[in-house]
TrEMBL record:
<dbReference type="GO" id="GO:0004349">
    <property type="term" value="F:glutamate 5-kinase activity"/>
</dbReference>
<keyword id="KW-0641">Proline biosynthesis</keyword>
<comment type="pathway">
    <text>Amino-acid biosynthesis; L-proline biosynthesis; L-glutamate 5-semialdehyde from L-glutamate: step 1/2.</text>
</comment>
<keyword id="KW-0067">ATP-binding</keyword>
<dbReference type="InterPro" id="IPR011529">
    <property type="entry name" value="Glu_5kinase"/>
</dbReference>
<keyword id="KW-0028">Amino-acid biosynthesis</keyword>
<dbReference type="Pfam" id="PF00696">
    <property type="entry name" value="AA_kinase"/>
</dbReference>
<feature type="domain" description="Aspartate/glutamate/uridylate kinase">
    <location>
        <begin position="14"/>
        <end position="237"/>
    </location>
</feature>
<keyword id="KW-0547">Nucleotide-binding</keyword>
<keyword id="KW-0808">Transferase</keyword>
<dbReference type="InterPro" id="IPR001048">
    <property type="entry name" value="Asp/Glu/Uridylate_kinase"/>
</dbReference>
<comment type="function">
    <text>Catalyzes the transfer of a phosphate group to glutamate to form L-glutamate 5-phosphate.</text>
</comment>
<feature type="binding site">
    <location>
        <position position="18"/>
    </location>
    <ligand>
        <name>ATP</name>
    </ligand>
</feature>
<protein>
    <recommendedName>
        <fullName>Glutamate 5-kinase</fullName>
        <ecNumber>2.7.2.11</ecNumber>
    </recommendedName>
</protein>
<keyword id="KW-0963">Cytoplasm</keyword>
<dbReference type="InterPro" id="IPR036393">
    <property type="entry name" value="AceGlu_kinase-like_sf"/>
</dbReference>
<feature type="binding site">
    <location>
        <position position="141"/>
    </location>
    <ligand>
        <name>substrate</name>
    </ligand>
</feature>
Length: 274
């Protein structure tokens, strides 16, 4: 990894992009095409791109004739098992026009704590990237449920970005940037930049959001961005609609500067999920 600025995302060597369930499923399933366009542009510039995508449960719901997100874990897992391959098919279908091949990688947070699993995952990802394949990562929902319960893969994406020494982690959702307090509240101001040693306790990111398709929210994004930045990976929080701009180095979103002297812990790191 190397320390880059927001503008240098344009020529980054390696970037992890994370997208949440609600951005690419249901009525937003069509956004997969524009997201893939943005990823393909970065790929064409020579950037190694890893996509961490949620949305397995949300994509599987109609196949199980579910109108709402199931509340019990077993049905969530069943929906994820059905939805995951549909989701990867949709990505591959959109990537085909660019001649890019996707590789599915399913991981659990526990894999990062097991030295053998950890090094196996890193080696496989390195080889995929060396082969110019675009890895698409999700939590392995049939054996792990951490990201179903907390964070919609935000934390998993931070762990992946550290594992492979990415230059940056881009967390895409439906907000253009983080705010000093929930944007619906008076006095909320956009946060443009967070220095690696800034105290975040002055900000009110609100509770973890659980909506009809996924879980997450500003708090889990800030926590994941911090986890990446502490490990030496700069992080950017912005909207999926700005994916192409942001990967081209536009001055948008909330930028978390990377710690210039990271102490890289083995495993999942010291910071928990918000
Ligand atoms: N791994 C889950 C999925 O892809 C996480 C998202 C969620 O909490 O709904 O569906």
């Amino acid at each position: 990894m190397s320390l880059i600025s927001r503008a240098e995302l344009n020529g980054a060597r390696r970037v992890v992009v994370k997208v949440g369930s609600s951005s690419i499923s249901g009525e937003n399933a069509g956004k997969i095409d524009s997201l893939v366009d943005a990823l393909a542009q970065a790929h064409a510039r020579g950037t190694e791109v890893v996509l961490v995508s949620s949305g397995a449960i949300a994509t599987g719901m109609p196949y199980l004739r579910l109108d709402e997100r199931p509340t019990d874990l077993a049905t969530q897992q069943a929906a994820a098992a059905v939805g995951q391959n549909v989701l990867v098919y949709r990505y591959q279908d959109a990537l085909r026009q660019y001649g890019i091949v996707a590789g599915q990688v399913l991981l659990t947070a526990g894999d990062f704590d097991d030295p053998t699993h950890r090094s196996n995952a890193r080696r496989a990802m390195e080889r995929l990237l060396g082969l110019r394949i675009l890895p698409i990562v999700n939590e392995n929902d049939t054996v792990a449920t951490h990201e179903i319960r907390f964070g919609d893969n935000d934390r998993l994406a931070a762990l992946v970005s550290r594992l492979i020494g990415a230059d940056a982690l881009v967390l895409l959702s439906d907000i253009a940037c983080l705010y000093t307090r929930p944007p619906s509240e008076p006095g909320a101001r956009p946060i443009e930049k967070v220095a690696f040693d800034d105290d975040l306790s002055a900000y009110e990111f609100g509770a973890t959001v659980v909506n009809s398709v996924g879980t997450g929210g500003a708090a889990t994004k800030a926590s994941a961005a911090r986890l990446a930045a502490e490990g030496g990976v700069a992080a950017l929080v912005t909207s999926i609609d700005l994916a192409s701009d942001v990967l081209a180095g536009a001055d948008v979103g909330t930028w978390f500067e990377a710690n210039p002297a990271p102490i890289l812990p083995q495993g999942t790191g010291a910071i928990g999920v918000a």
